[in-house]
Write a structure and sequence with these properties.
Blueprint (H helix, E strand, L loop, with lengths): L2 H5 L1 H12 L9 H13 L3 E4 L5 E4 L8 E6 L32 E2 L7 H14 L8 E6 L9 H7 L2 H4 L3 E7 L4 E6 L1 E11 L2 E2 L9 H13 L9 E10 L5 E2 L2 E10 L2 H25 L4 E12 L2 E2 L5 H12 L5 E5 L3 H6 L4 E5 L3 E3 L7 E3 L3 H20 L1
Parallel strand pairs: 3-5, 3-6, 6-16, 7-15
Antiparallel strand pairs: 1-2, 2-5, 4-18, 7-14, 8-12, 8-13, 9-11, 10-12, 17-18
Helix pairs in contact: 2-4, 4-11, 7-8, 9-11
């Protein structure tokens, strides 16, 4: 059964490239969803799109309480970002035209999420016609990245079908030996500092949102955080202003807070709220004219959670890794599995295999070397779970 992953390695890679070259920004996944739906249907699965755009594929005569294998459709890149894949030996437009090294394929989204979708399709083909297939539900979700805030996975696990799942595996990282069994909690905010604006010369002395933002961001950077449980913050997007000689009417930033611990995340969140207020007050103390209250909008809230290390799902994944000669490691990350864990479904994230790096960057790359081993790990895990379910 598993020799198909090696025999069809070139076809799996070409499918990955084809999927990557269909742009799929968060909230604009439909063209890619249509392509993946066609590929799932060609395997012989019954495929439908739900209300938010997730793809759900099953055997025509499925068993109850499915095992869900998933990957997300969307990427972090906007609709204007070119996504043509640069192949080995070609000039790389994402790195100033330098030659792509042997074995590597470069493009935004080539691994995250094209590699996950290609892996899901490859596993579905290998399991087609097996006893395991009737136990499977294949899911391709929308809105996993950024402001999508796990929208597709949350919707699925709020449905009766999602709540009936007995296990969930999302293919969404690059470390071949790692099992993500802990979901990192995150909160994301858009913060807008606002004023009446004005001319930089004629109206000098009015409240300047850029200075308020700078004061707050500098104070945030001084927060000291524990190494364990790991907790982080980031300012990922900055916007504002019209021109160099105008006091901006708005200056805004998107902030990401993360922690393995809900309590530490709460504490960091409280600190951030105070920092936002202090940034505003510091600028008001210097220049009050034209000041408006800042606006704080929550744009993301991912729950933290854990699938126990001794659960049937984690043990099946560990056994599959060990069978393939890999030393399992249990780690934490933020993926669609967070939504499953929050719904009470055992969930992990597994590797798409090969080698890759620079995810979420236009310098992202993928090398399919040894990918078949990770695909076998996923297939072995699913077969083990299905056999236990049948028993």
């Amino acid at each position: 059964m598993f020799d198909g992953f090696d025999r069809h390695a070139d076809a799996i890679l070409e499918e990955q490239i084809a999927i990557c070259e269909i742009p799929a920004p968060t909230d604009l996944e439909q063209n890619r969803a249509d392509d993946v739906q066609r590929r799932l249907a060609a395997i012989g699965l019954s495929v439908q799109q739900d209300e938010v755009g997730n793809l759900i594929a099953r055997h025509p005569d499925p068993v109850d309480n499915p095992i869900v294998l998933s990957a997300h459709l969307d990427t972090v890149f906007g609709p204007d970002q070119p996504v043509a894949v640069a192949r080995p030996g070609q000039g790389n437009p994402y790195r100033g035209g330098e030659v792509v090294p042997a074995g590597e394929y470069h493009a935004p989204g080539i691994s995250d999420a094209a590699a996950g979708l290609a892996a899901t399709l490859a596993v579905a083909r290998v399991l087609s016609g097996s006893d395991t297939e009737r136990h499977m539900l294949y899911l391709a979700t929308v809105g996993e990245e950024g402001r999508g805030d796990l929208r597709g996975a949350r919707h699925f696990f709020s449905s009766p079908l999602g709540r009936s799942a007995r296990a969930f595996i999302t293919i969404d990282h690059s470390d071949a030996s790692a099992i993500v069994h802990r979901g990192i909690g995150s909160r994301r905010y858009n913060v807008q500092y606002r004023s009446s604006g004005g001319h930089s010369w004629a109206h000098f002395g009015r409240y300047n949102p850029a200075f308020a933002l700078a004061a707050a961001s500098d104070r945030l950077a001084d927060i000291r955080l524990p190494r364990s449980p790991r907790t982080t913050y980031n300012i990922g997007v900055l916007r504002g202003g019209e021109t160099v000689n105008a006091i901006p009417e708005t200056a805004e930033m998107d902030i990401d807070l993360r922690s393995e611990s809900p309590a530490h995340l709460d504490r960091l969140d409280a600190d951030l709220q105070e920092i936002i207020r202090r940034g505003h007050q510091r600028e008001r103390d210097r220049r009050a004219e034209g000041a408006m209250e800042p606006q704080i909008s929550k744009i993301g809230d991912r729950p933290a959670g854990t699938t126990p290390a001794d659960s049937a799902l984690v043990q099946a994944a560990r056994a599959a890794l060990e069978t393939e000669g890999l030393q399992p490691r249990l780690i934490a990350a933020s993926t669609d599995a967070n939504a499953a864990i929050a719904a009470g479904i055992p969930a992990v994230a597994m590797s798409w295999g090969g080698r890759s790096d620079n995810q979420h960057s236009i310098r992202e790359w993928f090398n399919p070397i040894d990918r078949a081993r990770s695909l076998r790990v996923i297939a072995r895990t699913l077969i083990d779970l299905a056999a236990a379910d049948a028993g």
